[in-house]
Specification:
The structure is a single chain. The chain is built from 2 helices and no strands. By secondary structure, the chain is mainly alpha-helical. It has one domain. The model has no long low-confidence stretch (mean pLDDT 85).
Amino acid sequence: MATRNQQEQGSGFAQGFLLGSLIGGMIALWFTPKSGKQWQTYLFKQWAKLQKQANRKSNQLYHDAQELTNQTLKKAEQLQQDGLTYVQEQGEQLQEQLGTAKTKIKQMAS
């Protein structure tokens, strides 16, 4: 599992990559002589490529979020169970101590 810092770096990398791709595409458009139909085909292919990349990244982020949510829920359930176990153990110890105290009080009273 990636840490938050690694995720932020990955997100920053993806954003930089996307921005660089767009700028590179615009520069290519500016300096490459092509006909209108060639430009349309080229732009359509580039747009389709960017959509696929965005969909893959979106799906990966969704999967990662689900995984983190499941891990968090499991950890919360475990902590809840640990807390209940601790409270029960403490209650049992208090009952034992109370029983011991009652016995000593009865012995002192007799």
